[in-house]
Structure formats: C-alpha cells, structure tokens
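This follows on from our talk about sequence and fold. Please put the record directly below this note.
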Amino acid sequence: MSKSTGWDRRLSVVADGKRLIGHAGAVLLRRCADRTGLTQALAKVLPSSTAASWRERAGVLVQLAIAITLGAANLSEAEQLQLHHRPLFGSAASDSTARRTLSALDEATLIKIAKVRARVRRQVWSLLRLR
C-alpha cells in the first residue's frame, strides 16, 4: 500500500491507527439538522432560485458545517469530504459554490441565521426537557 501525502491523507481513513477521522457521525449530524428543522429554516432566510443549476444554499451550509466537523480545514477539503459522502447526501457542493455561498452572507443574513439557530436550539432543548 503506497502512502499518500497532503490533505487526502488527513481526510482518508487508513488502518494505520493514526489520524483517524470518524465519518459515521456525518449521517447523524445531517439527520439532526434536517429533523430539527434547521435545514428548512435556513432555506427560508437564504437566497434561493428556481434555476436548474442552483444549489440550495441551506444544504451547502449544512454540508460545510459537517465537513468542518469531520476535519476539513478549507473549502477544497470540504468538497472532497462531501464527495466521499455522496451516497448519503447527494452531489457535493463545489468549492466555488461554497465560496459564493459564504461570500453572499451579508450582515443582515448572518443575523437571520443566528436567529434561526437560536430558535432551533430552543426547540431542541425544550424537546430534551420533555424526555
């Protein structure tokens, strides 16, 4: 087995016992975002379009958050992790799509995102208290 170098080595799971990344949690994170309503709530405050080539910005942000959790340090690494998880999440957002999504987040949109996150967080904590 040849040793790889660079970012692909850090992001891949190798049976050498070093630099292991647990990818199993990616499914739980995505399902959590979807089931708590975070993804849908973000979709309501982010720009949208009916164009066939348009990527839903809420999905892009959620996938970026998951990629960061899994160890991505830049947009290229985030794209590679999304490609790895394509069977679970569908097509990956390219690094250029992610860059456009992030650069479009102005102060007003960031405030809306913060309010969405706070509302979803309150809802989740309420549900947890009811358990």
About this structure: Residues 23-130 form one domain. The chain has a mean pLDDT of 81. The chain has eight helices and no strands.
